[in-house]
Specification:
The complex is a heterodimer.
Chain A: H1 3-7, E1 31-32, H2 35-38, E2 70-79, E3 89-94, E4 119-123, E5 129-135, E6 140-142, E7 148-150, E8 153-158, E9 167-172, H3 183-186, H4 191-195, E10 200-201, E11 212-215, E12 218-220
Parallel strand pairs in A: 2-11, 2-12
Antiparallel strand pairs in A: 2-5, 3-4, 3-8, 6-7, 8-9, 10-11
Chain B: E1 37-45, E2 55-61, E3 64-69, E4 75-81, E5 86-87, E6 93-94, E7 97-104, E8 111-116, H1 121-125, H2 128-131, H3 135-139, E9 144-146, E10 149-151, E11 154-155, E12 165-166
Parallel strand pairs in B: 1-10, 1-11
Antiparallel strand pairs in B: 1-4, 2-3, 2-7, 5-6, 7-8, 9-10
Classes of the chains: A mainly beta, B mainly beta.
The complex binds fe (ii) ion.
C-alpha cells in the first residue's frame, strides 16, 4: 500500500475556510523519512498520565449530577490490521449540555454546569475497548465566519503503540444538521473519511430508563508493533 | 484482497483542551535516576511571527514523556534529561534527540519534528535525519544555548519555518 492511499482521508494543513489554518499551516511539504526508521518504533511513554477508574464516568466527578442527556460512549480501538490496540490511553474532553467548556478561555455566553467538567480518561481493555459515561455536549458558536456553529462533538486523544499512531480528533453525532456546514469536519475531502468521525446510535448498548448509547470505533495508524530501534 | 480498516482522520485539538489534557508535573519528563536535567524553553510562532497561545507541545524519547500548553506568549518549557544516541537497525546512529509533536487550534493535523542538542555537533553531522535536510532547515532542529537553558522555537510557517516530518 502506498503512503498516498493511507493519507487520503486526512485533512490538509491549509484549509482557508477554517481561517485559523491560514497562518498556521506549514508552507513546505513534510519531509518523508524511511518507513523502517520510525513507523514501528515504540510510541510515547504516556504511563505517567494518571488514570483512575472514576475518570471514565464524567457524570460522577462532582457532588451532583450534570444537566443534559446522559449517554454511554463506547467503542473499540484497532490498528490498520484490525488488531486490538490494548491498554492504550484514551482522553476525551467536551462542552457541557449548553455548549460551554469548563475552560477559562471559553467566553461563550452559555451557563457553566457546576456538576460537569467534561474531561475523562481511560485505558483500552485487552480487546481494545473503551467506554465513557457522559452527557451529550451542546453545539456552540465560534468566530470563524458569520453565524458559525460547531456541531456537537467530543474531542479524543489517543497515543497508540507507535509514534506514528498518535491521534487527536473529534467525534460527531449522527444526524446533526450542523455537520454539513462545519469547515473543520469538511476539511476532510472524502465523505467516507468524514463518516469515520460520526458515531452510530447503539440501541443495544443503552441502559433502559437511564442512558442512551453511541458507538464509535477508532483505527490507529500503523500495523502490529515490531520494534526496529534498539 | 479484503479491505483494511482506514485510519481515523485527524481533527484540530481546538482552543479548549487546557482544562483537560495537562496533568500534575507534566512539564517534567521522567528520568529513572533523576540526574542530568536540562531546561528547554521555546515559543510556538505562526506565519506572521505572532505567538501561538493555544498550542500543545509534547516531547518524547525512550522513557521520557512531557507535554506543555503554550501561554499567552506562545511559550512552553520542559525539564528533561539529555537522551542517548540511538542505533537504527540498519546500523546507522541517530544523534541524541527528542521527538517533538505540536498540536494547535488551526492545525487540522499535528506536526512532528525533532529537537537536537547544540553540544553534539559531531553526532549531529552524521545523523541520518539531519543529513536529509538543507543546512538552513537542519538549523531549525538544533536547540541553542541561552544562559542556563536551551532554546528551541517552533515556527509553523514562513521563511524560517521549522522542518516537519511525515512519520
Ligand atoms: Fe470543541
Amino acid at each position: 500500500m502506498s503512503p498516498a492511499e493511507v493519507v487520503d482521508f486526512e485533512p490538509p494543513y491549509l484549509f482557508p475556510e477554517y481561517r485559523s489554518t491560514v497562518l498556521r499551516a506549514p508552507h513546505r511539504p513534510l519531509v518523508r523519512l524511511p518507513e523502517e526508521w520510525f513507523h514501528r518504533g515504540p510510541g510515547p511513554a504516556f504511563g505517567r498520565i494518571p488514570v483512575s477508574p472514576d475518570d471514565a464516568d464524567l457524570t460522577r466527578q462532582h457532588k451532583g449530577e450534570p444537566l443534559g442527556e446522559r449517554i454511554i460512549l463506547a467503542g473499540r480501538v484497532v490498528d490498520e490490521d484490525g488488531a486490538p490496540v490494548r491498554d492504550t490511553l484514551v482522553e476525551v474532553w467536551q462542552a457541557n449540555a449548553a455548549g460551554r467548556y469548563a475552560d477559562p478561555a471559553d467566553d461563550h455566553l452559555a451557563p457553566l454546569d457546576p456538576n460537569f467538567t467534561g474531561a475523562g480518561r481511560c485505558r483500552t481493555d485487552s480487546d481494545g475497548r473503551y467506554r465513557f459515561v457522559t452527557i451529550k455536549p451542546g453545539a456552540y458558536p465560534w468566530q470563524n465566519h458569520e453565524n458559525a456553529w460547531r456541531p456537537a462533538h467530543v474531542h479524543f486523544s489517543l497515543f497508540g503503540p507507535q509514534l506514528s499512531g498518535r491521534l487527536v480528533t473529534q467525534m460527531y453525532f449522527p444526524g446533526d444538521p450542523l455537520m454539513r456546514l462545519d469547515p473543520i469536519l469538511n476539511s476532510i475531502p472524502d465523505a467516507r473519511g468524514r463518516q469515520l468521525l460520526v458515531a452510530s446510535f447503539d440501541i443495544a448498548s443503552t441502559t433502559p430508563g437511564w442512558a442512551l448509547a453511541y458507538r464509535w470505533d477508532i483505527v490507529i495508524r500503523g500495523r502490529r508493533a515490531t520494534p526496529l530501534e534498539r | 484482497m479484503s479491505e483494511r480498516p482506514r485510519p481515523t482522520p485527524s481533527q484540530t485539538v481546538g482552543p479548549f483542551f487546557g482544562f483537560a489534557l495537562p496533568f500534575t508535573g507534566d512539564v517534567d519528563a521522567v528520568r529513572p535516576d533523576g540526574t542530568g536535567t536540562l531546561r528547554i524553553e521555546g515559543q510556538v510562532l505562526d506565519g506572521a511571527g505572532e505567538p501561538v497561545p493555544d498550542s500543545l507541545v509534547e516531547v518524547w524519547h525512550a522513557s521520557q514523556f512531557a507535554r506543555c500548553r503554550t501561554d499567552v506568549e506562545g511559550a512552553f518549557h520542559f525539564n528533561l534529561a539529555k537522551p542517548a544516541a540511538l542505533r537504527l537497525l540498519d546500523g546507522r546512529v541517530r544523534a541524541p534527540h527528542m521527538n517533538v509533536t505540536v498540536f494547535a487550534r488551526g492545525l487540522l493535523r499535528h506536526l512532528e519534528t525533532f529537537l537536537y542538542f547544540p553540544d553534539e555537533s559531531e553526532a549531529n553531522s552524521t545523523d541520518p535525519v539531519l543529513e536529509l535536510l538543507d543546512p538552513n532547515l537542519r538549523a531549525t532542529l538544533i536547540a541553542r544555548p541561552d544562559g542556563q537553558v536551551l532554546r528551541f522555537d517552533i515556527r509553523l510557517q514562513g521563511e524560517s519555518e521549522t522542518a516537519f516530518f511525515a512519520l
